[in-house]
Amino acid sequence: MPKTRSEKEQIIAELSEKIGRLKSAVFTQVSGYTMEDADSLRKKGSAQNIELFVAKKTLLARALEANGYQVSKDDFDGSILTSLAYEDDIAAAKLMAEFAKGRDEIKIVAGILEGRMVDGNAVKQLATLPSREVLLSRLVGSLNAPVSGFVNVLAGNLRGLVRVLDAIKETKV
Fold first, then answer.
1. In the chain, beta strands by DSSP E
2. In whole angstroms, what separates CA 100 from the centre of its chain?
3. What would you report as the CA-atom Rg of the chain, rounded to the nearest whole angstrom?
4. CA-to-CA distance for 33 and 51, rounded, in angstroms?
5. Are the C-beta atoms of 95 and 45 separated by less than 8 Å?
6. Which of 114, 107, 120, 118 has its CA nearest to residue 85?
7. CA distance readout (Å), 24 to 90, 103, 138
8. pTM for this structure?
9. How confident is the model over 91-109, as pLDDT tens digits?
């Protein structure tokens, strides 16, 4: 049964609200998408605060346009699985890239990152980045390395002095 105009407007309003508060989004063309796939993907997504849904392309395009993104329903071909991440910028990209790995029938079409539309290749490159925590730990390690080196140099002088004093003590005994 077709949806009424008011039902469609309500769906567009809900989608528009979700899109308005997202950190990132990934739009994936899916075919051969089974219920087992949907259940496992939804479970993984909910653990990372990622919302997954399939919406009618025209309604999705209107909700995107309501938030300032320029798309047409022709940009999306076939069934489009939408992944919205609300906390981590790259979580949705990582989840969908992992899901699409080894499956030819699933293709990342586009995404939203930092308030702008990006193509599928940019989303795939984003998915290869390490997580925020890993990047922060690498940064701290890089910042800490010169300080650690300086401390080791200073400690080396003290170790040398202790060795010399110990050698002098051994010669006097």
1. 24-30, 50-54, 79-85, 107-113, 116-119
2. 15
3. 27
4. 17
5. yes
6. 114
7. 7, 23, 23
8. 0.72
9. 889 999 888 888 878 888 8
CA–CA separation, 57 and 130 (whole Å):
31
Structure tokens at 2: 């077709």
28 with 105: CB under 8 angstroms? no
Q: How confident is the model at residue 54 (pLDDT cuts 50, 70, 90)?
A: confident
In whole angstroms, what is the distance from residue 105 CA to residue 149 CA? 51
Domain locations along the chain: 5-129, 130-173
114 dihedral zone (left: phi>0; alpha: psi -120 to 50; beta):
left
User: Which of helix, strand or coil describes residue 31?
Assistant: coil
Reported as type and span, the H/E element at residue 15 is helix 5-20
Into which CATH architecture does domain 5-129 fall? 2-Layer Sandwich (3.30)
The label of the residue with tokens 């320029």 reads: 70
- The SS3 of residue 119 is strand
Q: Which of helix, strand or coil describes residue 42? A: helix
Residue 16 contacts residue 22 (beta carbons within 8 Å) = no
